[in-house]
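pinning this so it doesn't scroll away 📌
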Amino acid sequence: MAERKYRLYGFWRSLATYRVRVALALKGVAAEQVSINLLQGRQHDAEYKAVNPQAVVPALYVDAGPPLFQSMAILEYLDETHPKPPLLPADPRGRARVRGIAQIAVADGHPLVVPRVRAYLEKELKLDEPARNRWCAHWTLKALEAIEAHLAGERETGRYCHGDAPTLADICLAAQVFAAVAYFGCDVKALPTCMRIYGECLKLEAFDKSQPHKQPDAPANPTH
């Protein structure tokens, strides 16, 4: 059977692309990376919109089929097609908990700070950059506070978000924490469990080498 070929369209500072890079690395899947510069608006180019009509990253080509889109769908695809190591627990309740923690980040927190939202705040609501940054910091931290409450108060939390092996929840937590610390300068003192688990994640090469500032298309001195 011929080896599958993967091509990941993303951007160094994209949190959603960060999530997919981590999953690919955990699964040992090599992918060609194509940089779509969000800061320059290249996601709106006709060439890329032919890949993903929503004009967002990431998108993942697998062989010659239509591209996969939305990071969580891509993560679950990778988990189903490359089951080792698993990114979801074996039991239904555990899977629901992991998905719930992940969705606090990807569905409640991250969507409020993406480039198209920030552009609307700037161009339509006329908010200056400090105000936009306060918006982003507020919603990023709110999502992490909700995750912290679950992690600190539930017995299923272990070395990682759920037990002692990384799951989808840890991938999403890592991206959210990275944004809070590196992009928005949030005060994370009230998030000891999140930060402990984030530290455990970064001990793994898959998380560490996938960090936004370590990507080939990242500038030498990246900012938010």
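📌 and the second one:
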Amino acid sequence: MNENGDELTPEEAKALRNLAEGEAPPPALERATVARLRERGLIAPPLRVRTAWLLAAAAGVALFCAGLFLGHRRPEAPSSAEGPRFVLFLYDAPSEPELSDAQMQERVSEYRNWAIGLRKAGADIRGEKLKPEGRRLGSASPGDGPLGGYFIVSAKDWGAAMEIARSCPHLKHGGTIEVREIEKT
């Protein structure tokens, strides 16, 4: 073979002629030829190596996706066997002045810390702050102030639900809390 690697040695040329006549190539020639073709990207690796690599890559992607799903999923609602659930509707004080962004962040943190404290004490609680605008249907009259948010809590009975509601910081800010039991469906 010359320095460009394009010409065959006399031994390789003889083996190639024999191959054309139906003889099997010498094992060393076959290995060298396959290696050169792989180096140049003209043939793919054996199927089992590629399959194993693809399976490993697919498993890695599946584990990554499972981690994302588990890390971002919301806790499931408690089953009805865990006792009744209640919703606490938080109506803002009608005379409360509009809060600045910093004051609103501070208020949200206060409610979040309250809920975290209840969770640490073993309560099941979830909540959301609502946007100020909304739409009503029917003739129901709104509370004194706008509905600002809600919490859903599990409690053993009405007394425990009312105790949780009384501890909510919303009352100290002049708001009203309406407690309702969620019907089992």
